[in-house]
Amino acid sequence: MMQKMWCLTIRIKKTDEYGGKRLSKILIDFLMGAKISGATVWTGIDGFGKRRRSTVHLEGITINMPMMMEIIDEKSKLEPLLPQIRRMVGDNGLVTLHEVNVI
After folding, report:
1. Where are the domains of the chain?
2. pTM tops 0.85
3. Cβ atoms of residues 45 and 55 within 8 Å
4. Model confidence pLDDT, tens digit, residues 57-91
């Protein structure tokens, strides 16, 4: 049986900050506090967007990697959070929302 749910995807960089703290940590804490069912944070190895390339290689170490967060829950739980998430992400990233079938 399939269940209709929503997937909120947030694309940022690993080094992005909000209020002096890592944005990814702030977002995870915010989502946990909102009792969202779950979220996964993915770190990429390369990418580009409106802020140009997302990686910097220094002597074998990669910094400023692209990061993507996927959050799955009911639309009614995600929608009220969107204004605050958009404020936290600001112009640093991209926030998308789409319907998914959970099986």
Report:
1. 3-102
2. no
3. yes
4. 666 666 678 899 999 999 999 999 999 999 999 98
CB distance 97 to 11 below 8 Å: no
- Rounded CA-CA distance 34/75 in Å is 13
Amino acid letter, 94: L
HSE-CB for 24 with a 13 A CA cutoff:
18
CATH 3.30.70.120 fits domain 3-102: yes
Q: Token pair for residue 40?
A: 């996964």
Angle at 98 between CA 29 and CA 66, to 5 degrees: 55
Q: List Cβ neighbours of 35 (8 Å cut-off, separation of 6 or more).
A: 77
